[in-house]
Amino acid sequence: MFSDFKYILSKKLLLAALTVLLFLPIIYSAVFIYSMWDPYGQTEDLPIAVVNEDEGAEIQGKKENIGNEVVDRLKDNDKFKWQFVDNDKGLDGITAGKYFALIRMPKDFSKDAATMLEEKPEQLTIIVKKNPGYSYSGQSIGDKSAQAVKDNVSLAIRELYLKKIFQSVNDMEKNSGKLTDNLKKMKTSEEQLADGSSKVSNGLTALQKALPSPQNQSVIQLAEGSKQVTSGLNQLADGTDQMTAQLDKSLKQLKERSFKEDNAKMISDPVKIAENDVTEVENYGQSFAPYVLSLSLYVGAIAFVSIYPIDKRMGQPKRALSWWAGKAMLIGLYGLLQGLLLALFTIFVINIEIDNTIHFTLTLVTWSITAMFIVCLLTAALSNIGKFFAIIILILQLGSSEGTFPIQLTNAFFQTLHVYSPMTYVIKALRESIFGFEGNIPFTTSIAIILSIGAVMIGLLYITYLIKLKVPWLNSASELKN
After folding, report:
1. How far apart are CA 276 and CA 427, in angstroms?
2. What angle do CA 246, 250, 256 make, to 5 degrees?
3. Is the predicted pLDDT of residue 104 greater than 70, yes or no?
């Protein structure tokens, strides 16, 4: 039963190699996780070329330069490493990979902005150049830089026009106040005129009574005309009074609102995002860790069968059970140590924040042992061909386990394979243990599935050794002398 352990101890070079290989998943994980620890949090070091050719234009009666205003805003923006250059230098830099994006504001930038309130407004154009052949991931970050410039342009134009509109409202408020004062004065004059006209009418009426009858006709006409003038003046005064009341109401409403520069800025950018995520992810490395850790343990299993003759038997065991037991103990112990070392390294050296370290360690150890039995079974059954199939299985899991992008973004083949991929459940269990949530497959279910796969592999390994003992030519081919 312990012949495999005796064999390893007798081969000092093999023992040293297996000891080193125990750390292969650690090395593999560390290289990948550290290399992509926080790429999206380091965009302030990503150079973006900005070319401002805007010549400015008169907007609402004042000379403006939108390009210059955007440049000033970007100087206060630390999301990217903005480089303000001319077009020739920018083109040379984007071609050589010096810049990850070239963003140019053409000479008629402000001129187009001046048409916003015209019958046929012109949309502003920002010219963006990238070099995805140099760095495709850099291109996606370059897209974000272009969006940042676009947002600043939109913000600058909204602020500009709102300031103009608010200034017009403030001017209208002042002029309306003056108009109200003048209307009130006019009403007083109209009332005075009406009162004078009424006195004239009264005087004409008295004159009519004093004059002889033949002369009364002209006085009567004058008195009637005076009364009509008085009536008209009274109606005009009433109309002026109503107009004044409406203006007073409008002015009161305007005074209840603020049309200052701060209001213009707030309306131009009124929405603030308050994030309240279900889980908290510190950086890209932490989110990518479940995929890399599960992958590294499987790679460790492939490395193990590459140097240890798992398909050979030590000595001449007469029973398949003793052959299987010796191999299973070695495989299980190696898987246990490999998974435990990786868990400890991740927790204490990589220092990833983990919500449930017990679940995290259990998942890595369980998967490490299971992956060892998957690869060792294939190798024990098919030798080098089995190693090839182990690599094929790894490749299929890379595309179907949802380690990087959502499975919905892959094709139908990988979506179908998704539920049959062991790494699918490893990654889900690791994510839940790291970030502290319960997904569509609970942690206990994922662990049960991984354990079930491991148990099946252990059983099939016994059957493999049993068949090899029963078939003479397979038996001799599997024997390895000490």
Report:
1. 24
2. 145
3. yes
List Cα–Cα distances, 148 to 100, 206, 363, 430, in angstroms: 14, 86, 41, 35
Q: List phi, psi (to 5°) of 122.
A: -100, 130
User: In the structure encoding, which two tokens stand for residue 33, read together?
Assistant: 């996780």
Closest of 288, 432, 454 to residue 368, by C-alpha: 454
Of the candidates 408, 407, 413, 339, which has an alpha carbon nearest to the alpha carbon of residue 373? 339
Q: Are 103 and 50 a contacting pair, CB within 8 Å? A: yes
User: Measuring CA to CA, how many Å separate 63 from each of 46, 73, 113, 256, 431?
Assistant: 34, 19, 12, 32, 56
Residue that has been written with the tokens 């010796």 in this structure? 326
- pLDDT of 67 > 70? The answer is yes
Q: What is the DSSP letter of 405?
A: S
Angle at alpha carbon of residue 371, lines to 369 and 374, rounded to 5°: 110
Of 428, 439, 395, 426, the residue nearest 413 (C-alpha): 395
> pLDDT tens across 252-308, in order?
554 555 556 665 555 555 556 555 566 777 777 888 899 999 999 999 999 999 999
Q: Is the pTM of this model over 0.85?
A: no
CB 393 within 8 A of CB 374: yes
DSSP three-state, residue 267: helix
Any residues with CB less than 8 A from the CB of 305 and at least 6 apart, and which? 375, 376, 379, 387, 390
pLDDT-derived band at 403 (thresholds 50, 70, 90) equals confident
Q: Determine contact, residues 468/474, Cβ cutoff 8 Å.
A: yes
Angle CA 264–265–270, to nearest 5: 100
Structural tokens at position 117: 């309130």
Asked whether 107 and 53 are in contact (CB, 8 A), the reply is yes
Residue with tokens 């203006």: 247
User: What is the residue type of 448?
Assistant: A
Other CB atoms within 10 A of residue 67 CB: 24
Our CA angle for 277, 283, 286, nearest 5°, is: 95
Beta bridge partners of 102: 49, 129
Mean pLDDT value across residues 325-349: 95
Question: How does DSSP classify residue 123?
Answer: P
The yes-or-no verdict on residue 64 having pLDDT over 80 is yes
pLDDT digits (tens, 9 = 90+) for 356-394: 999 999 999 999 999 999 999 999 999 999 999 999 999
Q: How far apart are CA 57 and CA 65, in angstroms?
A: 6
